[in-house]
Amino acid sequence: MSGRIDSHQHFWRLDRGDYEWLTPKLEPIYRDYLPADLEPQIRRAGVDSTVLVQAAPTIAETQFMLELAAEHAFIAGVVGWVNFESPVAAETVATLASDTNLLGLRPMIQDIPDVAWMLKPDLAPAIEAMIDHDLVFDALVLPQHLPVLADFAELYPELRLVVDHAAKPPLRSGDLSAWRHDINSIARLTNAVCKLSGLVTEADSANPAVLAPCVDYLLESFGPNRLMWGSDWPVCELVCSYEEWYQAGEMLLVRLAPAERAQIYSGTARETYGL
Fold it and tell me: How many domains does the chain fold into?
């Protein structure tokens, strides 16, 4: 696989009925989003393939995404969902992993009240099954989860770990000090990879000048070899179009060498997800 990779995008069909977070209050994105909506946009941006990520905490949605991946060649693979606390979680992971389009799994940690949830012993069979099947753990976390995530990474050193949306830094408040400390700890103390995605939503802006302090710090902390670009489409449409975020990313990374940009736009995703 060559060419640029969007490491984080979603599809949904409202009549499936399991997107509890997606309500009419999110009017700009409260509609169906399917491959035909995305294909022309990735073509215009020069993106060849995507990683399709879960948006609902159900096995049914994971199966829906795997079906889409089987039907559309530009979908390089799927990051799905399982109930990590289920007594049959390990068996479920093994069953889903029999589909080679499954690249990883993502519990919706940001919605779980227990900040230390990921350290629960009940999760061990599911995590160990992920390791056995070489699946990536996408961590949908908020800044308050980062110290726990460092402990989680130490608990499962063989698990391939990705931090989604750079742990959603508080860009609207402008006070990044605690986030900077904790995301830097993740970069220093773990082998985690970080997604350069979701930032426009946290900032409520696609202005590169607004995003630059965060992006520059991520580059300083992780380096290009551990960063990967993602659109977070269609969630980004709450703030900007796919193309507007793509162009903002180009401006934010313009000072990098071509090989470093290539790493962020494709190499890291290829290596992390085994594409």
Answer: 1
